[in-house]
Amino acid sequence: KVVLITGAAGSIGSGMVRQLARYAPSQLVLLDQAESPLYDLHIELLKEFPAINFEVVIGDIRSLHRMNKLFSATRPEFVFHAAAYKHVPLMEDNPTEAVLTNVKGTRNLADLSVEYGVQKFVMVSTDKAVNPTNVMGASKRAAEMILQALQEECSTTKFAMVRFGNVLASSGSVVPLFQDQI
Q1: What is the DSSP letter of 120?
Q2: CA–CA separation, 113 vs 109, rounded Å?
Q3: How far apart are CA 104 and CA 95, in angstroms?
Q4: How deeply is 150 buried, as exposed, middle or buried, from its count of CB atoms within 10 A (0-12, 13-18, 19+)?
Q5: Contact 16, 80 (CB under 8 A)
Q6: 3-state secondary structure 29-55
């Protein structure tokens, strides 16, 4: 199967890439807007999984035009959506960015998944989407609601969400902050 991973260079996305590479999909499409971490992941995959067919794509999920070109070119069958803004204090100061990426970007990907017949779309969400008290949590909850609504109208693409709490040693994890404070 062709598998698209958004936010592929992030802590959760790259972990998914490493796990999925073990199953030798027909193609892994690694999408991120962060050039340097994506390059590092590219080099790692060449060393660790030399037989894997993968494509590295720089792009922004907020651009419907760019994402349409990507879906048209790669025809993903599975989408693992980990691209998001996740730092609560930064999103409080930049709420427009949280909405554009976490809501609009997710909507772009979900709509294209339906249009291109993706079999399964799995979004990485957050425990902060439960009764959200901040912009980041509210933006992720809105994205979840979009997927839930699409699931009710769509019989071909299956939408799922998984909520993560703080992930140990991930980028922006609260654990290093606590260690510094101690």
Answers
A1: E
A2: 6
A3: 13
A4: middle
A5: yes
A6: EEEECCHHHHHHHHHHHHHHCCCCCEE
- Phi, psi (degrees; rounded to nearest 5) at 168: -55, 130
Task: Establish whether 69 is a catalytic residue.
Answer: no
- CA separation for the pair 166, 96 (Å, rounded): 23
Distance of CA 98 to the CA centre of its chain: 14
Selected catalytic residue, list 1, 47, 104, 128: 128
Q: Count the alpha carbons within 13 Å of 166 in the hemisphere toward its beta carbon.
A: 11
Q: What is the pLDDT of residues 134-173, one digit of tens each?
A: 998 899 999 999 999 999 987 799 999 988 876 555 555 5
Rounded CA-CA distance 37/166 in Å is 21
Give the single-character DSSP code of 167: P
| Token output for 158 | 């299956």
User: Is residue 74 a contact partner of residue 3, using CB atoms and an 8 Å limit?
Assistant: no
